[in-house]
């Protein structure tokens, strides 16, 4: 059963750990200066790097699967370039690179995480056809998509979401989805020292959390207005 576990690289891991706890994520790993994993809707890893590291402020797509060999075969069938590596303290890993040069990583772990908020990493690029095939090859299921096929989001059966968004530059951005009251969440964040604003989007409201040294973190409300969109029959809303 596949679960999403996006990895946020940061030179300020303590800030991200504190944010995750405030949002209601629970720790999966013991607190560590370099690597921490939390869970709610899906998993979320925070990886510490030095200031000035090219990865500082970036997000990587990562998925946990039951069968790594089967995942590698499926990803190759979706046209991804496959590399198998073994990392200290991690073990065997599959790296799958799309034609756009976006690389996602996969490890074998039967973890499952359900709850709120849900992780919602967003993969941007111009042509979404291969990314769609890659995510579906891992067992993710389409949930909501625009009629114009410029936005497609997927639910992982083991927890977590992943979205594809048409854009000129191929990249991955970390975001979250929250089905509750965003005003109450904003108050809770403020009480813990986090600055944020709420903006109205066509699909719902979004809470923008100010992040030191990088763009704001988007916490999206669940999409309720489906004008110009479709939702898969029976799909959960978060």
**CATH topology-level fold name:** 2,3-Dihydroxybiphenyl 1,2-Dioxygenase, domain 1
Strand count, sense and barrel status of the largest sheet are: 9 strands, mixed
Shape: globular
Count the domains.
1
Order of helices and strands: EEHEEEEHEEEEEHEEEEEHEEEE
Overall pLDDT metric: 95
Structural account:
- This protein has helices at 13-23, 68-77, 129-137, 182-191; strands at residues 3-4, 7-10, 26-27, 35-40, 42-48, 59-65, 81-87, 91-97, 103-108, 118-119, 122-125, 141-146, 151-155, 161-166, 171-173, 175-178, 196-200, 205-211, 214-221, 229-231.
- It has 238 residues and is α+β, with helices and mostly antiparallel strands.
- It has a single domain (3-175), classed as 2,3-Dihydroxybiphenyl 1,2-Dioxygenase, domain 1.
- Strand 13 (151-155) and strand 14 (161-166) form a beta hairpin.
- Helix 2 runs antiparallel to helix 3.
Architecture blueprint of SSEs:
Blueprint lengths: L2 E2 L2 E4 L2 H11 L2 E2 L7 E6 L1 E7 L10 E7 L2 H10 L3 E7 L3 E7 L5 E6 L9 E2 L2 E4 L3 H9 L3 E6 L4 E5 L5 E6 L4 E3 L1 E4 L3 H10 L4 E5 L4 E7 L2 E8 L7 E3 L7
Parallel strand pairs: 2-5, 6-9, 11-14, 16-19
Antiparallel strand pairs: 1-6, 2-6, 3-4, 4-5, 7-8, 8-9, 10-16, 11-15, 12-13, 12-20, 13-14, 17-18, 18-19
Helix pairs in contact: 2-3
């Amino acid at each position: 059963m596949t679960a999403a576990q996006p990895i946020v690289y940061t030179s300020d891991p303590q800030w991200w750990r504190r944010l995750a706890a405030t949002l209601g994520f629970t720790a999966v790993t013991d607190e560590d200066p370099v690597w921490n994993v939390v869970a709610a809707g899906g998993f979320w890893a925070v990886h510490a790097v030095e200031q000035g590291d090219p990865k500082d402020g970036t997000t990587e797509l990562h998925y946990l699967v039951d069968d790594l060999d089967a995942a590698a075969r499926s990803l190759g069938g979706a046209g991804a370039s496959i590399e198998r590596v073994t990392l200290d303290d991690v073990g065997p890993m599959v790296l799958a690179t799309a034609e756009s040069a976006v690389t996602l990583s996969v490890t074998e772990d039967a973890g499952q995480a359900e709850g709120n908020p849900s992780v919602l990493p967003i993969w941007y690029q111009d042509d979404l056809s291969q990314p769609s095939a890659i995510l579906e090859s891992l067992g993710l299921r389409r949930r909501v998509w625009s009629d114009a096929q410029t936005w497609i989001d997927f639910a992982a059966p083991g927890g977590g979401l992943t979205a594809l968004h048409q854009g000129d530059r191929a990249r991955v951005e970390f975001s979250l989805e929250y089905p509750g009251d965003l005003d109450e969440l904003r108050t809770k964040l403020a009480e813990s020292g986090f600055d944020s604003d709420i903006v109205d989007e066509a699909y719902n409201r979004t809470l923008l959390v100010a992040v030191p040294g990088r763009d704001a973190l988007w916490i999206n409300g669940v999409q309720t207005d489906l004008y110009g969109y479709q939702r898969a029959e029976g799909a959960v809303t978060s």
